[in-house]
Hints:
By secondary structure, the chain is mostly beta strands. It has a single domain, classed as Beta Barrel (AttH-like fold), CATH 2.40.370. 5% of the residues lie in helices and 54% in strands. It has one helix at residues 2-19; strands at 55-65, 72-84, 93-104, 110-118, 123-125, 131-134, 137-143, 148-155, 159-167, 172-173, 179-181, 189-206, 209-224, 232-242, 247-255, 265-269, 275-279, 283-292, 299-310, 313-321, 327-329, 336-345, 351-360. The strands form 2 sheets. Strands 1, 2, 3, 4, 5, 6, 7, 8, 9, 10, 11, 12 and 13 form a 13-stranded antiparallel sheet that branches. It is globular and about 55 Å long.
Amino acid sequence: MKLLRNSLALLCLLASAAAAPFPETPSNSDGYALATPDVALAFPRDHGSHPNFKTEWWYITGHLQSEDTATDLGFQITFFRSADKEFPDSPPTQIYMAHAAVIDKSTGEYLHEERLNSSDWNADAATGQLDLYNGNWYLRMTNPDTEEMKTRFSLQKFGTLSLALKPAKPKTLFGDAGFSRKGDEPGAASYYITFTRLAVSGTATIANKQIPLTGAAWMDHEFSSSQLTSDQIGWNWSSLILDDGSELMAYVMRRKDGAVDPNSRLTLIAPDGQKSEISSNAFSWTPVRYWESPHSEARYPVEYQINWTDKGEKRSISVVPDTDDQELVGSIGEFVYWEGAGKVLDENGKPIGLAYTELTGYAETLYGKF
């Protein structure tokens, strides 16, 4: 009985912690909350929205195939929340943007769309739980115990994807228990929660025909009020899902002078979910081939190599895009970046996994936007 009482007390404590509001943190001069260390993230609360922070996003990228492999897709669905204050002490208005993209890997055709709405019209992000929508696009957690999710989005020239997402391994809190420093200036940090491997099942509805699909996906959730410092222009981000059951995330912060910021990190997730972080001086993210966009004239390193040393062993992998033109040029949010599906190759050129790469700050600096 004592053991049962102690177990019930622990469950009640965990439930109350998850239900409690997010701890108050210091604010910047504009009145937005700043990410600071030593904040204990609680779930399912922190899968939801944090409206006192300037910027937040829920980001899913993945790879889907039909059973006969005739349909082979990469996809991205992202929900952004941005707070806007008239004065530092005024309540924020919430602006919601969403981006969706699909690439047909067999043909190289890349399609994308975007949406922009406010909290007053057709968009919302719930606090305390994962429940987002922008128009008829949505992402929600259907079971907070297993952390299973569903998402649905459509593209006019493609059709609709309806997907169920089930964690294949526990979520990862990047950085120090979810506190991820991006630069040396105060507040240049985020809270960073990731599902590095999601088992995906669902359907693509194309021309009124339903095609069953399965695959794997990666989900990032970040919130902050100052991702970049004044001398940073953007980042190179890699999410690699490898065939051996491990994952790799590279977050390379780029400076105006072309140097890599020392706060950049390479993170390895073992098949059992254990996390290993490698500092910026112990790995390299090296461009191999560039592609110049005919849309924005930005020049992106779409093919690259990552080198690091793990337990005394030198490792080298390459990432090759499924097609070069995977640039999302925002006509609403005026945010231009490259977000692309690709393949991971080992030292001998053998395919060993699937990749998504995000390249920002190549068309213009992102300082002040995130």
